[in-house]
Design brief:
The complex is a heterodimer.
Chain A lengths: L1 H27 L4 H6 L5 H11 L5 H13 L13 H36 L4 H15 L2 H15 L11 H31 L2 H8 L4 H38 L5 H10 L3 H29 L6
Helix pairs in contact in A: 1-12, 5-6, 5-8, 5-10, 5-12, 6-8, 7-8, 7-10, 8-10, 10-11, 10-12, 11-12
Chain B lengths: L3 H20 L11 E6 L17 H10 L4 E3 L5 E3 L2 E6 L5 E6 L13 H12 L14 E8 L2 E6 L6 H5 L9 H7 L13 E7 L3 E6 L20 E6 L3 H9 L5 E3 L3 H9 L3 E7 L2 E8 L9 H9 L3 H9 L19 H4 L7 H10 L3 E2 L5 E3 L2 E2 L1 E6 L7 H15 L2 E6 L2 H10 L4 E7 L5 H6 L15 H12 L3 H17 L4 E4 L2 E7 L2 E2 L2 E2 L5 E2 L4 E2 L3
Parallel strand pairs in B: 1-10, 1-11, 17-18, 17-19
Antiparallel strand pairs in B: 2-3, 4-5, 5-7, 6-7, 8-9, 9-10, 11-21, 12-21, 13-19, 13-20, 14-15, 15-16, 22-25, 23-24
Helix pairs in contact in B: 8-11, 9-12, 15-16
The chains are: A mainly alpha, B alpha+beta.
Chain lengths: 304, 536
């Protein structure tokens, strides 16, 4: 229980640190939000009025304190660019990104672990070489290029799946495959190495000598030990998938926080950037919390 | 003038198109109903700001034409015809215009369109506190008088020749004053007009949904269709990636897509199950502008060396594969007073002379072929924020290669919008590029007349002669005299290398064979009022 509390406190600290840091960085970036909101042809008077309205003329610490105060009350502020509440803008975009990222995670895990294990068991044989070659192809392909390839094959030539948009499950298949397969490639190489390492350990020989079936050795003993480094990698990959979503969302013309973030940084729409960072930080921290907790399930030596 | 053979080809092409339309089963007469999905090249812009008075961004203006109507319509011969205004009289001193408005027009929110709403629109635009993009379009506007519910007089502080053509622009589309009052700062997410389609919903960055305006009875003079639109629903999807846009069309996930890239155009044209329409966008062509407020670009000779190093014909041919003509004049050929005809082939690339000029000015070859003077390298920082829209960065890559041959070192400085505006305002760049859609040569005033110009303007030209011609052109009502003024402006812009026009944009739309009746208006924006679906 203390372990869990410690982990949660640490997670909260990471989220707080990330949002504070981004707040500072945004102020160092050149460009004045009020001028950008006012747009072309605005008079100095207009800009001053907008600045007063946005409150960006106040001292930095004052703005930071009021941001924290609002945040504590669950208020993420209002977008400088559109005047909409940030929560409203995020809410509309967060679900498609979560769908995409989480499903890509599932694809990465299933494809990555299966490929890795099969490859390790058939070490040095043609199946291993074939899988290795395919994985290398996936990991070295830019997501942008893989995405166009998938669209060409499955949307244009075969017409099995839609190329753009979001909302239906069919529309998720190609972007999830695009993101998930690349991550699966990385994961599978890790799984393969890890499984091979464990297979070579003396205790495996002992287990085999005891007369356990190969299947039982593999699934009950080897995998459990081999998965620990893999799970750690998965925590990092989840963050990578979230950032990879930016490219994928543009390519497949999907909604998502990634595209919102890129534009908001460009026009210094600080409340929106803060909102997205908060979302991303919470997501990343949650995944890693789950990763930490899963050690307990996989490896009994980690005590709660 | 087309030759006789070209005429024959045109007529034959027309006949073919007609016979194909009639052969297309099952429907040959317009069928009402259905939803048309249009893939729009909206660039990487996530914020839809559907306020016509506050957007100079062409992709969003392509949506406006379906939601908002204008007082007048621009006809193919560049004259203006009646729309929400039925007729008008211009005072002898050219300082007031009295419009008789069409009766029985209502906004999508049910409020009536009348003289008071026209006045409210113009007052909104002219209020400097609102800082709206459309402000320069109304020039010396000095207020409006409501003479009767259907009569409004627009007063000007001085004659303003561009007024009527500017009133036909999407940026002066008529919005519902009641909706502006109701939504305030978020009107751009809740647009209300009088157009053939009303706004239903939007998802920022991805989708704009419109539905038929059942009351629509006020299509402009000369429209292909009168009465409510055939389509029940019209959906714009923002698909910024060109390969995806073409794929969505080819897989028939959308009915139509715009800005089809050159490499895909030929394939679509050859495929009988697709159609392609295109039309010149009335435009101040995409051009490169040296920052003449900064050394060494303040020196006319160095700018000349820059120009003579460039073979723009080759650049345009290589990048656009013959789908777009090269631009010689700042204004696209169809705009009134474009100097395209006079300026065509007015200069030739001459890298040898460019090198001589640089040599004579003390810029001598240094390490790796880049010229140097007093220890400073001949570098050009090209600033950009929109990415490869219309393949503009591909153009710059070729520009960079050609300039390297005479000893310039061009680098691309890609910045987010905020930093871009800051750097443009502070003059921290050497070269920039932009285009501005417009129906009147007065667009040159926005760029090249220093008074009232935005600090971040892409042109830093401050030339007393050009300024005078632009001011005179704004007031001159006699077409021939007016055209002559703008011809002089354009000739000098090229002669002094203040501007380097690159290509004439032919806006295009690809559709599946299920779609009929999509048109492109005189400005070069898509219209869906007369569109219908064979499968509806």
């Amino acid at each position: 229980m203390a372990y869990l509390l410690r982990r949660i406190a640490g997670a909260a600290l990471v989220v707080f640190g990330a949002t504070s840091m981004v707040f500072l960085i945004l102020y160092w970036l050149p460009g004045d939000p009020a001028t950008l909101v006012a747009g072309e042809g605005a008079t100095a008077e207009t800009i001053a009025r907008i600045r007063a309205h946005l409150g960006t003329g106040r001292p930095l610490w004052d703005q930071y304190m009021s941001y924290l105060d609002n945040l504590a009350h669950g208020d993420l502020g209002t977008s400088f660019a559109t005047g909409e509440p940030v929560l409203h803008r995020l809410w509309a975009q967060a679900m498609p990104t979560l769908d995409l990222t989480l499903l890509a995670c599932v694809v990465a895990i299933v494809v990555g672990v299966v490929m890795g294990v099969v490859s390790a068991v058939h070490r040095g044989r043609w199946l291993d070489h074939a899988i290795q070659a395919a994985l290398l192809l996936f990991t070295s392909m830019p997501s942008f290029w893989l995405g166009i390839l998938l669209i060409m094959v499955f949307a244009v030539t075969l017409r099995w799946l839609p190329a753009i948009g979001n909302g239906s499950l069919a529309q998720l298949v190609l972007p999830v495959a695009c993101l998930g397969l690349i991550a699966a490639g990385k994961l599978a190489r890790m799984v393969r190495n890890s499984v091979i390492e464990v297979l070579d350990e003396p205790f495996v020989t002992t287990l085999r000598a005891k007369g356990l079936t190969e299947r039982s050795v593999l699934f009950r003993h080897v995998l459990r030990n081999a998965l620990i480094p893999v799970v750690t990698l998965l925590g990092i990959l989840a963050g990578e998938l979230l950032s990879g979503a930016v490219v994928t969302e543009t390519l497949f013309a999907r909604q998502g926080v990634g595209r919102i973030l890129v534009e908001a940084v460009g026009v210094k729409d600080i409340p929106v950037v803060q909102g997205v960072i908060l979302f991303a930080a919470v997501f990343y921290v949650l995944i890693n919390l789950l990763v930490d907790l899963s050690y307990v399930v996989i490896d009994r030596r980690v005590r709660v | 003038m087309p030759t006789r053979r070209e005429f024959a080809a045109l007529i034959a092409g027309g006949t073919l198109a007609v016979s194909r339309a009639f052969a297309a089963p099952p429907a040959t007469t317009p069928k009402p109903g259905g939803e048309l999905v249009f893939a729009l090249d909206g660039a990487a812009v996530v914020t839809f700001l559907l306020d016509p008075h506050n957007s100079g961004f062409a992709p969003h203006n392509r949506v406006f034409r379906s939601i908002f109507d204008s007082l007048v319509v621009l006809r193919p011969d560049q004259s203006v015809g009646p729309w929400l205004a039925q007729s008008w009289q211009v005072a002898p001193d050219q300082k007031s215009y009295t419009f008789q408005l069409r009766r029985g027009v209502t906004f999508h929110d049910g409020t009536p369109f009348d003289a008071a709403s026209v006045k409210a629109n113009l007052d909104r635009i002219s209020d400097p506190k609102n800082a709206l993009v459309a402000l320069p379009d109304i020039g010396p506007y000095a207020g409006a008088d409501v003479l009767a519910p259907d009569t409004v007089r627009i007063n000007l502080s001085e004659p303003f020749a561009p007024l009527l053509r500017n009133l036909s622009k999407t940026t002066l589309g008529i919005v519902s004053p009641a909706a502006v009052a109701k939504y305030g700062a978020t009107f751009g997410q809740n647009p209300v007009g009088t157009g053939p389609f009303r706004f239903v919903s939007l998802i920022q960055g991805t989708e704009i949904r419109l539905a038929r305006n059942e009351d629509y009875q006020w299509a402009p003079d000369g429209a292909s269709h009168q009465g409510p639109a055939y389509l029940e629903r019209l959906t714009f999807k923002n698909v910024p990636e060109e390969a995806t846009r073409v794929a969505a069309l080819q897989s028939r996930q959308v009915h139509a897509a715009d800005t089809i890239p050159p490499q895909a155009l030929a394939a679509l044209r050859a495929d009988p199950t697709f159609r392609v329409l295109d039309k010149e966008l009335l435009n101040n062509n995409y051009a490169l502008y040296p920052n003449i407020a900064r050394a060494p670009w303040n020196d006319e000779q160095i700018r000349l060396a820059l120009r003579l190093s460039l073979d723009i014909d080759t650049i345009v041919r290589v990048i656009y594969l013959g789908t777009l003509p090269r631009a010689w004049a700042p204004l696209s050929p169809s705009i009134f007073a474009s100097a395209e005809h006079d300026l065509a082939k007015s200069w030739k690339p001459d890298p040898k002379r460019a090198a001589d000029i640089l040599q004579a000015n003390g810029w001598l070859p240094g390490a790796s072929g880049i010229r140097e003077k007093d220890g400073k390298r001949l570098t050009i920082s090209f600033i950009d924020t929109q990415g490869n829209r219309e393949k503009r960065l591909d153009v710059i890559q070729l520009v960079r290669r050609q300039l390297a041959k005479t000893g310039f070192d061009l680098s691309i400085d890609s910045q987010p919008a905020g930093t871009y505006v800051a750097k443009m305002s502070n003059g921290e760049y050497d070269l920039a590029g932009a285009s501005q859609f417009a129906p009147d040569p007065d667009v040159l005033r926005r760029l090249h007349l220093p008074d009232g110009r935005d600090k971040s303007s892409v042109s830093k030209v401050d030339d007393p002669e050009i300024s005078q011609w632009l001011r005179d052109g704004m007031r001159e009502n006699e077409p021939e005299a007016r055209a002559e003024l703008y011809h002089k402006v354009q000739a000098k812009l090229i002669d002094k290398t203040y501007a380097l026009p690159i290509y004439v944009l032919q806006y295009n739309i690809g559709t599946t064979d299920a779609v009929s009746g999509v048109t492109i208006d005189t400005h070069g924006f898509p219209q869906f009022h007369g569109a219908w679906l064979a499968t509806a």
